TrEMBL record, chain A:
<dbReference type="Pfam" id="PF09379">
    <property type="entry name" value="FERM_N"/>
</dbReference>
<comment type="function">
    <text>Protein 4.1 is a major structural element of the erythrocyte membrane skeleton. It plays a key role in regulating membrane physical properties of mechanical stability and deformability by stabilizing spectrin-actin interaction. Recruits DLG1 to membranes. Required for dynein-dynactin complex and NUMA1 recruitment at the mitotic cell cortex during anaphase.</text>
</comment>
<dbReference type="InterPro" id="IPR019749">
    <property type="entry name" value="Band_41_domain"/>
</dbReference>
<dbReference type="GO" id="GO:0003779">
    <property type="term" value="F:actin binding"/>
</dbReference>
<dbReference type="Pfam" id="PF09380">
    <property type="entry name" value="FERM_C"/>
</dbReference>
<dbReference type="InterPro" id="IPR014352">
    <property type="entry name" value="FERM/acyl-CoA-bd_prot_sf"/>
</dbReference>
<feature type="region of interest" description="Disordered">
    <location>
        <begin position="1"/>
        <end position="193"/>
    </location>
</feature>
<dbReference type="InterPro" id="IPR018980">
    <property type="entry name" value="FERM_PH-like_C"/>
</dbReference>
<feature type="compositionally biased region" description="Low complexity">
    <location>
        <begin position="777"/>
        <end position="788"/>
    </location>
</feature>
TrEMBL record, chain B:
<feature type="active site" description="Nucleophile">
    <location>
        <position position="276"/>
    </location>
</feature>
<dbReference type="GO" id="GO:0016787">
    <property type="term" value="F:hydrolase activity"/>
</dbReference>
<feature type="active site" description="Proton donor">
    <location>
        <position position="171"/>
    </location>
</feature>
<protein>
    <submittedName>
        <fullName>Dimethylarginine dimethylaminohydrolase 2</fullName>
    </submittedName>
</protein>
<comment type="similarity">
    <text>Belongs to the DDAH family.</text>
</comment>
<dbReference type="InterPro" id="IPR033199">
    <property type="entry name" value="DDAH-like"/>
</dbReference>
<keyword id="KW-0378">Hydrolase</keyword>
Amino acid sequence: MTTEVGSTSEVKKESEQLGADATKENPKEVAENQQNQSSDLEEEKDSKSSPSAKSQSSPHRQKRQKDPSESRGISRFIPPWLKKQKSYNLVVAKDGGDKKEPTQAVVEERVLEKEEPLPEEERPAKGDVEETAQRKQQVIKVDVKEETPSVSGPETQPAEEVRKEREDEKEIQEDKSEEAAKRETKEVQTNELKAEKAAQKATKKAKTVQCKVTLLDGTEYSCDLEKSAKGQVLFDKVCEHLNLLEKDYFGLSFQESPEQKNWLDPAKQIKRQLRNLPWLFTFNVKFYPPDPSQLTEDITRYFLCLQLRQDIASGRLPCSFVTHALLGSYTLQAELGDYDPEEHASHDLSDFQFAPSQTKELEEKVVELHKTHRGLSPAQADSQFLENAKRLSMYGVDLHHAKDSEGVDIKLGVCANGLLIYKDRLRINRFAWPKILKISYKRSNFYIKVRPAELEQFESTIGFKLPNHRAAKRLWKVCVEHHTFYRLVSPEQPPKAKFLTLGSKFRYSGRTQAQTRQASTLIDRPAPHFERTSSKRVSRILDGALIGDADQSLRKDFPGPAGEVSAYGRGAVSTATAQDGDGRRDVRSPTKAPHVQLIEGKKNSLRVEGDNIYVRHSNLMLEDLDKAQEDILKHQASISELKRNFMESTPEPRPNEWEKRRITPLSLQTQGRKGDHLFKDILSMKEKHQTAATRTVEEKAQEADKKRAPESEGPCTGAIDAVKSSHETLNVVEEKKQAEVGKDERVITEEMNGKEISPGSGPGESRKVEPLTQKDSTSLSSESSSSSESEEEDGGEYRPHHRVTEGTIQEEQEEYEEEVEEEASRAAKVVEREQPVPEASPGKQAGASVSTVETVAQENVVAPKVSAEKSVHEGALKQDVSEDTEDEQHKVNGEVSHVDIDVMPQIICCSEPPVVKTEMVTISDASQRTEISTKEVPIVQTETKTITYESPQVDGGAAGDSGTLLTAQTITSDSMSTTTTTHITKTIKGGISETRIEKRIVITGDADIDHDQALAQAIREAREQHPDMSVTRVVVHKETELEEGED
Amino acid sequence: MGTSGEGLGRCTHALIRGVPESLASGEGAGAGLPALDLAKAQREHGVLGGKLRQRLGLQLLELPPEESLPLGTLLGDTAVIQGDTALITRPWSPARRPEVDGVRKALQDLGLRIVEMGDENATLDGTDVLFTGREFFVGLSKWTNHRGAEIVADTFRDFAVSTVPVSSPSHLRSFCGMGGPHTVVAGSGDAAQKAVRAMAVLTDHPYASLTLPDDAAADCLFLRPGLPGVPPFLLHRGGGDLPNSQEALQKLSDVTLVPVSCSELEKAGAGLSSLCLVLSTRPHS
């Protein structure tokens, strides 16, 4: 199983990732978080009532599953088995959380795999679908049962299992590592997580651990610490030992691999950062003072010298021969004093390492220069050493290996002034801190959003591919710390920070350079006596090696992730995604995805919990590796704050990346048409699904819609606000499954009804939706992204693409938001057209009528044009499938994989949205970038790639590559389901950018629908939402058995 | 170290190479260069040498011209010198590669550390390299490739070496130079301005920038032959060559302007940066 699991897990991971937008690691984290949360809930439940735990857990699981299923919604496009796997995986993970035994999880997975084939079949055949659904349910149930016995297993265990699997495939995620640590520490897990936690705390508190810290002079300092001690405790001890007051420039690091050095976060518990690594640390300079002469104490400079000598000897700080000699000569002067022919002639200089490769010539030159330093005190020699060393171009530059958007190996150097990009030894680009608007990472991608250059009009986001997620996070943290330390007067408060907006919660909590300088002026003590020892210098170099050995275990994990990364290839890298958006999107996406696939009810719940979802995702995305479950809650809270801030934040006046991205102008008409196609495709997809279990699907969709309804309800039937209760939703989900399988539409509908209000015209709702798009673009975007993601998740094939796209999408969405707002302020022309578009033959089901109303609003404002297309489909869409399906599928694949999923058709969402993304700016040379910018065609290459990834097939169907799916909402009532899809497209034509918003509203239902009313609502909503924009086109497709086309 | 920028232009010696007849005759023409007045070119070259020796007080070494090397006069392409290190280049044109031999020997004799390119895939013309006193910019041009730039970075490790794409059919130094330790001088052409913008992005140091109407006017040499405290010189193209840029050059304070003319040699692609190499035999003093 391990192998199988690995493959499946990978797929799952990918799917999850896609769904969550999070990188592989992120997904894991997300999953973990979810698991944790769910597990917490479960635990609580368990604690309350062990017997009920199973049932409760099942709902949770279901929910979780639902999440995955939601992602599956994306997966629709993806082969069913993949989807199932994912979902299963999720389930497993959840279960795993309950379960302690990995084997069980494996078994489950296997089962799932076996079942997988069935699910594929499901789509075509209702019965199959039902069966699959049942099977899924069964499986889940089974898992639950299994879990329950082992239930003692806390969240961590399941997560661990999942992690294990994932780890095999991929890097170890932070969470995993944490969990792993937990595992080690807590080998014995209590049934209840809480109990475990408590036990852990107790035990940890009681226990002490011996820490060994390698100091800069090569000596080792050891001390005993409480296991629960935070990094600050150890750091303070070390500094006390060193008699160091100006300690803000320094830090403790630990290496999880020879090449990966992590800084110990003083604010967090050591054990959580180390995980299962040995408690070995090195004391290092963390922030190299740009001007060492401003340090107050000689002892501080001395330690800096020691660090630099290490850096030089190791080659991290390259020097010319002359500089090696000069610095070496100062070293001799400082450690040996004035040159003494008698004493030093016999001195073996090989004890010193002046350079990575030390030649006799160099030693001779050192001695020659040493003679010229006569009279310099050790402190003066150190100062001279530093004066020369600080001018070295690589002084204080923290290098990180990465790849640019084209897959070229580069290095990212973080320094006091900003971010440097190196290719080989050559600096090919530079981003000063003031130019960087935002730093983010997602999975193994690292992104910076930079201000437009002088001649550029738009901000651009540049993506880099790091070897793995941890590397990306490490880089991100280093950037955050450096920026804060060197550029800010005081550490910024996470929520309000405009720089690094939505990053993880992590912020540099220490003193900034300005603060430490000020503090240094207050130092009032006689210069401490310290001994400069040369005897220790040899050992210094060994630090890295020592640490590396310990971490080999971790290394194992890394290869996996790297492989994945490679798989993603350039595409991922190339896509530049907005950071914030990603995080958010990720968060939401998981939730959504699950809803789609498994449970609509969840969607409702999600909706209700919108913030939470957001939080979760953000947590996952933003979360620090070290964070424990406890922290997560805090995280969520902070995230919600962030979210609020984000929402509140005024849109940036500047044009978004979108414009850049959208190189190819799309004519409105074409878009509209495309939209139509998409729409049709979607419909067809739905229809296909419907064919399997048309009404059931619809109902589900409707349910989903209801959940989402608040957003998009407009034309649709009234049901919306309705139920949010998770329990209900869970039930609904099950029912849906059943419905899918057996067409228990009625049941579902009933439940739906109970939860939701009967379908009616929901103009108000629709209105709500639109505003949401503008105002809550984030939320909307997240939703849309989620849908797309979910789809992606489902499709194993898309994964890489999806991932990439997801990131991009989020950014775009964010941008969208901004744009939208901007647009809102702009004046617009209003042109309304109504184009009746007859759609294919109505579904088989009698009474089903499909009407599509597309409203296109165009603004011919200089900058953005916004076209909103709203398509309202009323009636049953179900049956049309057969014809369109093929074509649609193609489109779907290209555009979005929505269609594939039987259950999910409701979600429909992202017709082309997947493409949305990316404005990838190729990193290459600065000059190149400028060129690009001037041309306004900055990102093209990347985008193209992205597009191809996501929707290779799209071209035909989706001329609208440029379109972004903002919102996909499905409102379901007994007889009707409404789906609203919003595409935002920006096109730049000769300096004029057009923003087009296409909204497609699909109303599916058995009951007769007042099409005129729906249309009126759609138009009204469009106007309300985008007062500045004009409605250019309204297309109504109506499909009925009897009726084919109506306006 | 010299990274402070204070070392910019410090020099004790100047190296030039005579104008061969082949520059004006067949071989030069064969190289696609327009015919030029050999006598005028040689006269310009002689004046340049005189200014370097008499006006600036440098030790002038003049390599004898070789008829087989029509472009040997442009010895600025054959070496990149900073401090005590001379990187012997590998010119893009295979026909010009023999030019480095004479230069190498002369620099070796002056006590410089000689670094060879040693990479068959690397091409580097010395006039694609701009040293600002704090860092290097290497123009990636028709003549210089990434590998060549990489070797520059490998040779002068103390310094940041940044690459600057050069779009025009010219060398980086043909449209920009240093007007002072903190001042970049550049022409107003698109390629020049683009390069300056790129450099502004790449550098950690705040340079002032002076834009001259003529690209060629920016190919100037900031030289500090004397002891610290003595106003440095700026060797630049005079009013006879480029009258439009003279006024702008007056904006450079703290330098003594030394105009020279090389309008005839320019027809062969020569500029001040390619006509002479300057170095200091005691760079660390």
